[in-house]
Each structure stands twice: as structure tokens, then as C-alpha cells.
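Let's do one together. I've listed all components of the complex below, 444 residues spread over four lines.
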Amino acid sequence: MKRQAGEGRGSTLNETLCDEIRRLLVDGALTPGQRLSESALSEQLGVSRNTLREAFRTLAHEGLVTHAPNRGVFVTTPDMASIVDIYRLRRFIECRALSAAWPSHPAVREMRAAVEEARTCREQRNWQAVGSANMAFHGAIVALADSARLDVFFRQISAELRLAFGLMSDKEWLHGPYVEMNQQVLETFEAGDTTAAVALLEQYLAQSERTVLAAWARQAAP
Amino acid sequence: MKRQAGEGRGSTLNETLCDEIRRLLVDGALTPGQRLSESALSEQLGVSRNTLREAFRTLAHEGLVTHAPNRGVFVTTPDMASIVDIYRLRRFIECRALSAAWPSHPAVREMRAAVEEARTCREQRNWQAVGSANMAFHGAIVALADSARLDVFFRQISAELRLAFGLMSDKEWLHGPYVEMNQQVLETFEAGDTTAAVALLEQYLAQSERTVLAAWARQAAP
DNA sequence: TCGTCACTTATTGTTCAACAATACAAGCGC
DNA sequence: GCGCTTGTATTGTTGAACAATAAGTGACGA
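Okay, and this is what the predicted structure of the assembly comes out as:
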């Protein structure tokens, strides 16, 4: 839906609020499993309880927080099943999007930009930013499929995955190795060898899944 | 996430309310483009404005209603781009889910049940119910992929598509022919010829898309 | 006659305060 | 130690209030 019935561009505090909380979640300021008290958080953020509750509804639908009726809202704790599910979806979506892609699709430009961004951030050892750039790369891959709905769905999944990333301490190991791999995927794809690029991507995702799962298990053991 | 931090099963009016409004939307009691006044609707449904607004956030995130800041909430009007996008996604998701399916997956049982249901509803000429059963069939196909997140995503898309269905008058023509086609897909798949089943499914979706688009254009012309 | 401007009005955005309903914790009897 | 009742804090839901915005209205001037 392009410009449904107006869709005027007002700031609408609620939007701002959602963004703010999302940032808190992705930055790790709020740790998974933590309960988010309505009164406390509304006071801290300077909004009313009702407004906060509206934001919670949006975030809950995005999977970032979990609403337990009559008990409260919690930062979603990624469990193993979620991680497996998310990676299965990523393989499902990304590989197919890449394999059916039009070689000179505008999104390829974004892929390139993301790789560049990741490289410069890596030089500055800003691993959080490297993670963002890597995600942008994969978002661009999904964009190859030319579906607006798929794009927002993938953004959602990415945010949820970042929640899991937040559980781990060694960000360098978590994001660093994939800069090269992304670049390799891109170069292979641009060279015209789509099937090889897809194979690389599949390998990338498998390795990433293993890393995340291992770190999750290590962390969740005690 | 299976049972995140409790997730107790209270009715929580809000849930009920969302279901109620969804039903109104899918049944066509609320027509696309219509503005939903907060005060009017809250009074009509016997809930407070705040509660209704919370429900609106959920429904807006599902794409069933469109929120225009400072202007109000409108029943989403499906445009041509949305229909095309949704069908592209359905081809993307359903075909791949079916082609990679484990032949004795539990969801096959659901597929069979949906076909049965559709047949009986067709005999009673209850086309609305036929539409529901057909959708359940395709939901079962998606379930073959074994991804919880993909399931909810597809449910969302289905609801949005039903909004478009609501624009058309001839429900028999809209839902009737596909009962046979679904059955054919199922039988071919159960016979073990997966590739043929996928081809049939693809054909199904293409024909359905043409029908919907044509009806949409016919309706939107004046 | 037409367009522009300020003004009016209705609706949404947001807050506040209150009460009901529920879940958790503590204390009690056994 | 175990089940039960009681208390308390938090969420669920409501109603009213006010600010902010958008649409409609009508006067005014070219």
C-alpha cells in the first residue's frame, strides 16, 4: 500500500517511543528475560502508561518483547528453537531471493554499500556497527525479491536475531569473520556465477548458525 | 518462543477485541477505505477508547487497518501492487514449502481435512466458508516448512488478501473452482510426484491472481 | 467568480487518576 | 513439609480531560 488514505508524516510520539525502545533492546541496555514494569518504564521515558502500552503492543507483535497477560511485558528471551527457526527462515528466504535475482537489480548497489560500510567499521573495531552493516547486506539480498512485505518481515526477524546476539560477549568473533564472507558472496554473484554465490551464502548461514548456537549454549549452561 | 516467561492463558479483552474486529473485517461488515472513528467504534463495541487504540496498533501492524497520524484509522484498501506482492510471496513461500516437504509430514493431514471441509461447504453453497477452507489448505502447505514464524506471517498475508476478496461480489466464482484444484494438488503430492504437484500449485496461484486482479480492476474502474 | 486567509469545529494524541482483576509472596494452620 | 488463606503490588480497563492537528466554513479581496 503506497499512500493509503493520507498517511501524513507526523512525529506521533508513539513512533518515536517504539524506536527508542527498539534501540534500547538492540543496544543491550535491556537484557533478555528482564521484566519491563509499566509504571517504572513509563516514568523513566517520560510518557504515560497508556502510551507505553500502545508501544508494547507494536513491539510484542514484532517479537521483541513478550506479553504475558496479567503478568507483564518481558524482553524476549531467544531460545534455541527460535534461533533454529530464524536461521531456517533465513536460508529459505535469502538463498531463494539470491538465486532468482536479476543481476543488475538496484539492491545490488545496497549490497555493495553494506560491504564497504562493514569494512570501514571493522577497521575502527566497532563491532556493533559491523553487525548492523552485515544485517544491512542481508536485508539487501532479501530486497532482491522485490517484495515490500518480505522486506518488513525480514527486518523483524533481524531485530529478533540481534536480541540473541546481545546474549554474547565476544562481538568480534560474532561479526568479524562475516565481512569477508559477505564480500565473497557479492563478488561471486557479480561475476555471474549465481549458483556458486548461493552455495557460499548457504555456507555462511550454516556457520553463523553454529556460532550463535554454540555461544547460546555456552551462556545458557550455568 | 514456546512458553516465554509464563504466557498465561487469560482472555484479556484486548485479544477478544482484536478477534472481533478481524471478524468484522473479513466478513465484510467494514468496507475497505472506511474510516473507523475511535469514539463511535469504541461505543459500538462497548470498550474504552484506550483499549480500542491498543487493538488498532495490533491490527495496523497486521496490515488490516491503516493508521494515518492525526487523521484516523482506515480499513486498508488493497491496491493492485498489494495483490501482486501478496501473490508473488505466496508463490515464493508455498511452492518452495511444498517442494521441500517431507511426504508424511503431519500437516498433510491438515491439508486433507481442509479439502474435505471445502467440499462439504461447497455443497451447502456457503462460499465464505469455502474460502476459509481453501485458505486453511494453503496454510497447511506453509506449515510443511516447519517454521512457526513463517506460519504467522502467512496468516497475516491471508487476512490481508481476504480484505481484497471482500471487494468482489461473485463469491462462487472466486472460491468455487479452487476446491478441485486443491484436491488435485493434494492427490498428486500424495502420489509422490512432488514436482508435478508444485507445478499444479503454481498454476493454481497464477489463475487465482488473474481472477482477483481482473475483479479488482472491474470494480475499481468507475 | 475564484482563490486565499483566518476561524471554527470535530477528531485524534496524550495524560491522569481511579478501580477491578489477577498473580505472586508471605504467613498460617495442619 | 504441604496446602490454604490473606495481602499486596502490578496489570487490565475505564472515563474524563486537555493539547495538537486536520478538515470544513465563511469572509475578504482581486
